[in-house]
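FIELD: query
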Amino acid sequence: MSTAARAIRRQRHDAGERPFIVNWEFTRACPLACLHCRAEAVPDRNPRELDTAAAQDLLHQVAAFGQPAVAAHVVVLVRMGRKTVDHEYVLVSSELYLGTPGSAAQVAKMSQETPDAWVFNGAAAQCAKAPLTLKAGERARFWVVAAGPRDGTAFHVVSTVFDAVYKEGTYSPKPGDSRGSQVLDLAPAQGWFVQTTFPEAVPYSFIDHDSRHAEAGAMGMVEVSD
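FIELD: result
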């Protein structure tokens, strides 16, 4: 067993205070009535559902639980509604300050702006070691959150074009437009999504296009098969 695996098995903490997985079904609204649907969907949104600002605040609360030294926090989004993509992924961009959460050493690193790494989902290059997977021709949506606390992100998937980008409450380009976009640029605390299709069965890399961030761990791979 690897040292990392042993460290995970030995870790003891209160999951109510610092969970590793957060399941969030953020709407039950759906105009369809599919026989295979696992949930009791309704046509209208519940007025108690979180709006965009409250949803972003929830993601920031998850990020604020503190970064474990080995494992990352994972947010699992469950959404009802018409299927427009084959896969959805959540990538939380942040600076990584190793150490005991809230310790003097960790706070000093943050004050001096000297993170140990820049990462997606809490661990450097973890999606390069365990790539995201899909098949050629499939369409994917990437939800990207810039958790900061200081730096934003410039999310880019090499050798693809985003044919739909949703940012700041509007599409540019819209789904179906002939235009495309290369990068989703987000300031700290922003979070939106992009969509693209992977045409060939080859590895595609994704990065934070700030080279400092990419070289220090903010990168990963999408492994596309036939």
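FIELD: remark
Residues 4-11, 68-74 have pLDDT under 50 and may be disordered.
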